[in-house]
Every structure is written in structure tokens, then in C-alpha cells.
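Changelog-linked ticket: nicotinamide-adenine-dinucleotide example.
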Amino acid sequence: MNIAVIGAGNRARKYLSCIPGEVHVLYIVEPEPLRLSSAAAMCGVPSSGCFTSIEEFFSAPRDIEAVIVATPDQLHVPVALEAVRHGYHVLLEKPVAQTLQEYMTLLEASLSRGVQVGVCLEMRFHPYFQRIKEIVSGGMLGDIVEIDHTEHIGPDRMAHTFVRGLWSRVEDAGPIFLSKCCHDADFLMWLSGGSVVSAHSTGVIRKFRTDRAPYGATARCTDCPVSDCPYSAVKLYMERREWIDGFDVPPGSTFEEVIDSELAHGRYGRCVYRCDNNVYDTQDVEAVLSTEVRLNMHLEGTSMQEGRTTVIRGTKATLEADGGRIVVPGLIREDYSHLGGLPLHAGADRALVEDFFAAISSRREPLATLSSALEGHKLCFATV
Ligand SMILES: NC(=O)c1ccc[n+]([C@@H]2O[C@H](COP(=O)([O-])OP(=O)(O)OC[C@H]3O[C@@H](n4cnc5c(N)ncnc54)[C@H](O)[C@@H]3O)[C@@H](O)[C@H]2O)c1
């Protein structure tokens, strides 16, 4: 099967590393020359298969069956819609859309064109979350009455992505509950079934604002005297060498030079209390579902904890999951914490890519379709 990849950044590189052998990448579409050439080299795409603009790529029919769309969030629907109109199946990054109207336009177009759109909601493919789903579906808890679920965005991810980074402003990347918690909303709606009857949301920026800056904190971390700041960019990028995958290294430069320059002049060297972020760092959502399940969801980006915690109360038993262990007192005690640091979301990214291409080949639906991801997205849209 021949495919194209549109948007060759971090996520696309991960998917490219697990493309099945029978799938051939013929085209890459990416405006950044360094990313374009490195993705092309990774998959052996000649320069005739490389495009810097979507318009140019879609200006002629291509001998492909599917595209992977891993562009920035706002481009998901316009790009996927164009692909669908050309009759290509689409593996689309989350969130599908920025509004319900956009979502429905894409869903209707894909149904009338008869193409599949798989959505990159990897929690559905993750062994830990699949086990929770299996326990709930097996009936051990009885009917679900209430779910409490918290997504703790740890300090490094919060600072890099949602305070300094590309998902820090609603204007650029939509609200954080959509960009980050669409995974959680999807998982919980997949688990519970039914639809959202009502939802109420409260969000604030509790920590990452100027009046919360420690005394003496400077505008950039390079000259900041606050030595115990957990958000220091110097410690994160220069000393620990974490979250640097997205830094492009031009030919003739070293990683050291790129990090130095980013710390001195780039967005990632800024003090987290003095950025232009406007997405919430704390949000609570209460929803009632048509199944009469009460859903309490929390986004917590200000503590030092990372990961997801879930409590599912049923009419027969309660399941407690802390991101590693899954416990139903007296019945189940299982430990999945060894999956924590494994690459590609503990193999879930590979599983979703394989599921998508197997679905296209065997003319079945992928596990995460536009139709089945609609309710989770509706919950996110309701919180805006
Ligand atoms: N499923 C997940 O767990 C997960 C995790 C992180 C990000 N994401 C999503 O994946 C998508 C990509 O995120 P990322 O971290 O790879 O970001 P990224 O910035 O590394 O990659 C996006 C790429 O798209 C390119 N691009 C921009 N405009 C384009 C255009 N007009 N045509 C083609 N390409 C264009 C950018 O140059 C960039 O290389 C986002 O929608 C993000 O929300 C999903």
C-alpha cells in the first residue's frame, strides 16, 4: 500500500518508525526543509516525492491509498477533508477538529466518499487502559455509577508544551482540554458508552502567571538566580537533555549550539511565569451521560505529579487505577507500572498504526474511527 505523510514533525517521526513492511511512503509534505529532508531520508523518498505545500501536493492525483495527517491541530480538518475528497483513507492526529461543526463536516464527507478516517487516540491501544476497559465490559463492577479521572500533566510536559510551547495559546492550538484531554474524554466515553447529556466546566490559570513568579525571577532561565525552580529550562534542556526532540539541528551546527540559542533567544528559554500562555493549567469538568454515569474529570498542571488516575464506582465494586496499578479490592490487583517509560506510549502508537493499515487492507473499520471518537470530542467541545 502506498501512502503520503503530511506534517513531518515529532508525531510523524514516531509513526514512520513503525510503518508495517508492506506500506510504502511515496510522498512527504512538510514546509520546514530540515524536517522534510530528514523524514524523506528516513523513508527513502526521492526529492520528486517531497512537497513543501499542501496545495501543491493536492494539485494532482497521487498513486496512494492513504495519508497520515500529523500537522498542527488547526490544520487537521482542512487537510483531512482534502484527502477524503481525493478518496484517500486518513490516519488523523487528535484532536480531530476545533469545533463540532468542523468535525461533522469531516465525518459526513468521509461517510459519503466511503473512506476510513482513523484517529490517533492511543489510549485505546494501551495495555493498561485496555485492561480497564476489559474489566468494566466484563461486568465485575456492575453498572457504572460514577467515574473520577484526573490527568496530571507533570512539570516538564506542562512547561515545555503548554506554557512555553506550541500548545500554550488558545488562538494557536485551541483550549487545553481539547488538545490534551481529548484522549481522556475519548477513553472515558469509550468505556462508558452513551452520550453527554450535560457538562459543566471551570478552568483557571492558577500558577503560570506573572504574579506567581518567585522573588527575583528573571525573564529568561539563563540568568535567573532562583536555583530551586522545578521549571528551569537550563536544567531541562541543557543538563537533563529532555524534551529536545523537536529542536532542529541545521547542517554545520551542534545540538549544544541549538540548545544554547534556544535558551538565549527562543520561546523555550522563557521563564514559565512570564510567558504569553493563556490555556488553563487547572480545569474541572462534571458531566452527566445518557447512561446516567456521572463523570468528574480534572486537568491538573500545577503539581509535580505526572500521569492519569482513575476511580470507577459501580453498583457491585469499585476500580482504582493510579497509572500503574489496577485494583478492585478483593478481586483484582495488577501492576502495569513497568510500562511507564516504554517508548511509543508503551507500544500503543505502533498498535494504532498497525490497526489502521490492517483495517484498510481488510476493508474493516479501524478501532478508533471518526464516528466512535465523536462523543469524546463532543464532551471536549462542551467544556469550551
Ligand atoms: N497522539 C498523541 O499522543 C499526540 C502527542 C503529541 C502531539 N499530538 C498531535 O500531533 C500533531 C503534531 O504534533 P507534533 O508534536 O508532531 O508537532 P510538530 O510541530 O513537531 O509537527 C507538526 C509538523 O507539521 C508541520 N506543518 C505545519 N504546517 C504545515 C502544513 N501547512 N503542511 C504540512 N505540514 C505542516 C510543521 O512544520 C511540523 O513539522 C498535533 O496535532 C498534536 O496535537 C498527538
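Closing comment: Example verified and attached. The radius of gyration is 21 Å. The chain has three domains: 2-120, 124-208+277-343+376-382, 216-269.
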